[in-house]
Amino acid sequence: MVSATWDEVRARRLARSSLAARAPAARLVDVAHDLGGVHAQVQAAAELQLAFRVDGIAQAGVREALWERRLLVKAWTLRGTLHLHPAVELALWRAARRAVAGAPGELAAWRDPAGVLHPEVGRDEGEAIRAAVWDALDGRCLLREELAGEVAGRVGPEHEERLRSGFAFFLSELCQGPPQGAKVTFVRPDQWIEGWQEVGEEEALAEVCRRYLRTYSPARPGDFREWFASPVFKAPEARALFDSLGDELEEIDVEGHRAFVLAGDTAFPPLEPTLRLLPEYDVYIMGFRERGLLIPEVVREQIAAHGRGRYEGPAGVRLLVIDGVAAGLWERKKRGKRIDLQVTPARRLTRPQRAELDDEVERIGAFTGLEPVLAVE
Q: Which of 26, 202, 356, 365 could form an S-S bond across to 372 if both were Cys, CB 3.0 to 4.6 Å?
């Protein structure tokens, strides 16, 4: 059995996440592929994830690839949350999601963040609403309120407010179109993406698992389940998926922790010094399921004292990462033509680390077109 150290695992995950050596600008879409999608609940965070991994790109270029050239697409995939994917791959991710989510069922009554209670939605009602959504978007790109009004005109107004709520009720099979100011729009993926072709669900799920292992392994079935799916994807189903891959997988040992890689994919590079600023929901953090080996106690205390960290844990905060391990927090705030950056390391930075931090700050400025102003606490 092949053995590796956790330092080697961190080195490999950094490299395969394009956080060690950066990718050239021509590989922007390839990086989104390699990462298995870029978490995009917060658009600015998604853009920065790409900025920290790809040389020579600007914020406007990412948006052009997404909204104009349609090389990237923004849709609900992993864990039912918004991600950026190469547009040609969205059918694969949607099929894999259906494989674990099953057919849409009833929706229970729901109280929204404003305290308004929305009535339950029966299975037949839900199917009618989803069909109306699909019909309303035929050849069109609509704002949420426009779509809600169109659907209410087709099936009645009883559940119109759910559609207006800002959540993905009845919208998970769609993708987002170009925003209008601060407002999102919706389009049908089969019309937005050229050459759309459906993919078999079980085949898609197996391929997504392979891609996960390529970037984030060594991993166990439970790690993949937490990374990819919702609670409806049960632990026995995740184990069965790994079993179904059979000889495609190989078990290795990491300091007494046994987990799987793709068969023959057992090369681990040495860990090289790196310092990176990772935005909230960065995919390196989301893919690193062994959180005790990623977040030292001193940083865990920083996260617990942070507003978002108290509720969302490491995923919801911006992390300073040194040599693949969390080493502090950082914040950003746009002020006119400048962007203020505040970094709070958990320990004093060395001179080489401070130089790398300055490079990260310059990268943010070049990407956003704003003047970066750094404060280190």
A: 365
